[in-house]
Each structure stands twice: as structure tokens, then as C-alpha cells.
Amino acid sequence: MSQQAFAIAETVHPRDYIPAPAGVNLSVTYFDHRSGDDVYADGDKVAKNGDLEANAVIERLIHFTELFGMPADPQIIIPVVDLDVGIQGQDSSGLGDIFIGSTFWPVADQQNREWFGLTPFVYLPTGEYDDNQAVNVGANRYSFVLQSGYVKGLTDNLYLDIVGEVQWYGDNDDFLGSNTLSKDEAYRLSAMLSYDLSPASYVWGRYAKQIGGEESLNGITLANSEMDTDTASIGYTRWLGKSLQVQAEYTRDLSVDNGIAVDGATLRLVVPF
Predict the structure, then answer these.
(1) Using CA atoms, how far apart are residues 85 and 120, in angstroms rounded to an integer?
(2) How far apart are CA 247 and CA 202, in angstroms?
(3) Tens digit of pLDDT for each residue in 86-121?
(4) DSSP 39-100
(5) What is the CATH classification number for the domain harbouring 173?
(6) Structural domain harbouring 176
(7) Is the CB of residue 28 less than 8 Å from the CB of residue 117?
(8) Is residue 4 scored above 50 in pLDDT?
(9) Domains of the chain: total
């Protein structure tokens, strides 16, 4: 299990696919906590002592500009993670896998309140990694994410977001020694609705479906390694003046085919600079 299972910074939130004006810089800081006990295999609960706990502080730096004749937001995301999986008797902490990327908006229609963007991300194997254990905050491999997002203002106060993504994984050639751990591509689809309570605040909900990511060790498929997870989130976002946005989120796995079902909370702080 790697830190990427809990890297919520690349999980988009409502209205993230609405670009800020060129020249704006944002510091986005996430404080994330996840925990879980119920362990599932092939859709059946097989244990209640997963004892997973993950805590992360993630810093995301974003610069809005124009590239190739369209709005863009080159960015870097730096996670620091503490991960403990009691059922495996292992833990790991430290710098996670840094990732970089940018959204490009071929459609940014402020007048009709409609936006569409494409976001490539590259994960770098910078995270703490011990090849003698399976639990690490670093994945010890490169991976690539391609994400696309569509936002539409349905009414003056109600917005719909649809975001899809696919992630391709490189091989980890130092898994528990000199073994090779491979992972198939994984897919995620998120649907979000957000509603303005005031000009400075809104409430929102998100449903996400994640599938794929089956693993193999030295070419042999690992049983019960493929993801099929449904997750729901609710949140509240508010600007405090023009210098700070605060967002609180609660997230819970609704169903898990393989792995540990988790729930948790995230506090996000956005500071323009």
C-alpha cells in the first residue's frame, strides 16, 4: 500500500476546473486524516482489524497563466505522509511522491458559465521507500495521470462538475527485495453538485467511482488486488475576505471490493499570493 491511495490533493473538488485570472498564484494546503478497520476481499468482509490510519499534510502551489493560447495552471504538489497499517504490522512516514502538472482549458466561457479542461500529472518516485516492507508512503515508481473536467452553471447558484481520470503506473522493481510489482491502469469518475449559500460560500457533495489497478508480482496476478470502490463526500467552502478560503470535507467509502474501507476528514486552506 502506497501513499498514493491517500493523496487527496489530486482529487478535484467542486469548481476546481474554473480557472482564476492569469497572474494569480495560490498556496493550497491540505490537512488530511483517514482511518479504517473493515477489510474486504472480492466484496466480502474478511476482517475487522485492519487498523489503518493515514495522516497527511500536502502543499500545492499553483500559478495561473496562459499557455498555447488557453488558460493554464502549472503546479507542484508536495505531500508529507504518516501511514500505519496495523493488520500488516508496518508503518511509514516522511516525504511522499511529489507530482507536477497543469490544467489546460480549451473551453473557458465565463459568460455562459461553462468550462472544460485537461490535466496531465506526473508522479515522481521521491517518497520514502523501504524495499523490506509492503507499506510505504512512496511508491518507488513513476506514474502518469490524465484528468479531464467539465463544469456547468445550471442555475445562478447551482453548479455541476464531472471529472474523469485514468492513471498509468510504472513498475516497482524493488518490491520486498528485487521483485517486480506491476499495476494495471486505474480509472476514476467523480460527479459533484455545489450550491451557493452566499456570494462567499457554498455547500457541496461528491460521488466517486474508482476501478482497475490490478497488481501482479513477477508477472503473476495477485488475487483480490483490483479496485472497485464507491466513495461519497460532503463539504463546505467559504472565503474569509479575499485572502483566505477555508474548506472542510468529510469522506466515506460506501463500498469496497478489495482493501480496507476508510473514512476521514480534510481541511483545505487556500491563500492567494
Answers:
(1) 31
(2) 10
(3) 999 999 999 999 999 999 999 999 999 999 999 999
(4) EEETTEEEES---EEEEEEEEEEEE-EEETTEEE--EEEEEEEEEEEGGGTEEEEEE---EE
(5) 2.40.128.130
(6) 3-272
(7) no
(8) no
(9) 1
